[in-house]
Amino acid sequence: MEMEITFPGGARIDATYDDYVIHTDQPPADGGEGSAPAPFALFLASIGTCAGINILNFCHHRNIPTAEMRIRQRVEFVPRSRMVSRVHLDVLLPPDFPARYARAVVNLAQMCAVQKHLEAPPLFTVEAHLVGE
Fold first, then answer.
1. Mean pLDDT, all residues of the chain
2. What tens digit of pLDDT does each residue of 33-51 get?
3. What separation in angstroms does the CA of 35 have from each of 15, 27, 32, 41, 131?
């Protein structure tokens, strides 16, 4: 998978892959216009939405309605470093959700690919290349 990251102006940064463009910006307090989520917010959102797609697929295969389901995600930070110390996902099930599947949705949320990558993080390499020389 390859993405191209571009700088359209201000504090905006875009990521393009396939036919999609993901727009990011910084909040005004950090020099942006707040026109899109900050990159770190998208990172955090990827955790909950990844858990959500696992649960959604499970429910769709069993014809369980998901319109009333929610995932509440809360993040704790280390005060001094502001690094994430804990991510809480609360899967909020409607009253008519089949109780026998409650544990399954928890297990599915924990199988999220984003979470698995954080548990065994990849190596990062960064290089600079002059274009056109």
1. 96
2. 999 999 999 999 999 999 9
3. 15, 8, 8, 13, 30
Q: Which long-range contacts (CB under 8 A, 24 or more apart) does 42-45 make?
A: 44/73, 44/75, 44/84, 44/87
Q: What distance in Å separates the CA atoms of residue 48 and residue 71, rounded to the nearest whole number?
A: 7
CATH entry 3.30.300.20 includes domain 38-122: yes
Distance CA 71, CA 87 (A): 12
Locate 82 and state its tokens.
């502001």
Q: What is the pLDDT of residue 133?
A: 66
**Predicted model pTM:** 0.89
Number of helical H runs and strand E runs in the chain = 3, 5
Q: Where are the domains of the chain?
A: 1-37, 38-122
Residue 45 · residue 112 · CB < 8 Å: no
